[in-house]
Amino acid sequence: MPVDRLLPTPESEDLLSLVTEIARDELKPRASADEEAEKFPRGLFALMGKSGLLGLPYSERWGGAEQPYEVYLQALEEIAGAWMSVGVGLSVHTMSCFALAHYGTEEQQDRWLPDMLGGSLLGAYALSETQAGSDAAALSTRARLSEDEYVVNGTKAWITHAGVADFYTTMVRTSEDGGHGISCLLVDSSTPGLSAAPRERKMGLTGSPTAQMLFEDARVPADRLIGGEGAGLKIALSSLSSGRLGIAACAVGLAQAALDEAVEYAKGRTQFGRPIADFQGMEFLLADMAATVESARATYLDAARRRDCGLDFQRQSSIAKLVATDGAMKVTTDAVQVLGGAGYTKDFPVERYMREAKVPQIFEGTNQIQRMVIARSLKNA
């Protein structure tokens, strides 16, 4: 069922209509088969780039659409509802462009952003390491300046688009000064000494490649340093505040897709002479699912509108990510229950939705970390 959205302008309404059409015609028909085959749909990112969807929140100067975050996130929700791997990929790409768009020099922005936003280049975000996930300041991948190049050594873990991205927004250690010793490099995929490990074998989002990225004396030109030495942790945390809203929107899209499948099945499945949707137990279950989806949507939109107004939104971003991803896990699990035995088979997509709903509770900061961020904000208010 189409979502009844409140959009700020006629232009944004036209944009969402385009996104809905692409999601319906290009993404959803391929999703189940490509996920089953663990096939990454690179061509769809080029299509979205040509359609203007890879740069929705960024400046028109570099080929972006300069849309407010409340519009970008609703577009992202539509895409994730059709195919979660593509929605997450778009969110990651948008976050990968954040450092350059907000902290790069004009020369750097003019040089690289047009291709990044136009679909020629696909991004990845390389922050996490095996021993530095939630504790980002503990990362150990090192970059040593040698004349006009940084020589990088270390391993990044859990990198979405590993091995298929064209650039990696990478946080590295340039000094031993704790969190102040972290810097940001925009690393080209063709960099000598950079390679991807074999893909992780995951329970969900199997169409989206995730792997370690290996830096072995990788030589990165010094002009690819973003924001100056020591600015990396600040850039990373700022990127994550916006990126968490992207994951919240993706989670809502996934939950909405599960709700739609559950409602359609309940209306068509007959037991004891009437549709199971007419039984009060089922009505209450579907109602709770709908309330969860719409509450999560309202939560991420509130955070996005605060961001668009230039207000602090870090706590609201963490709340949105927490509420939306926990909600998606519940709604997708309930959708499997609505379909009963059919929901446990691969003949219907709800079992895939349930598997895909787990990882948003983990990446972009686990939901336990979100609770810490929220509590710290309350104590410091």
UniProtKB/TrEMBL annotation:
Q: Which PROSITE patterns match?
A: ACYL_COA_DH_1 (PS00072), ACYL_COA_DH_2 (PS00073)
Query: Has the keyword Flavoprotein been applied to this entry?
Result: yes
Pfam family, any one: Acyl-CoA_dh_1
Q: Which UniProt keywords apply?
A: FAD, Flavoprotein, Oxidoreductase
Annotated Acyl-CoA oxidase/dehydrogenase middle domain residues: 124-217
**Entry cofactors:** FAD
Q: Where is the Acyl-CoA dehydrogenase/oxidase C-terminal domain?
A: 230-378
Q: Name the family.
A: Belongs to the acyl-CoA dehydrogenase family.
Its name, as the record gives it, is: Acyl-CoA dehydrogenase family protein
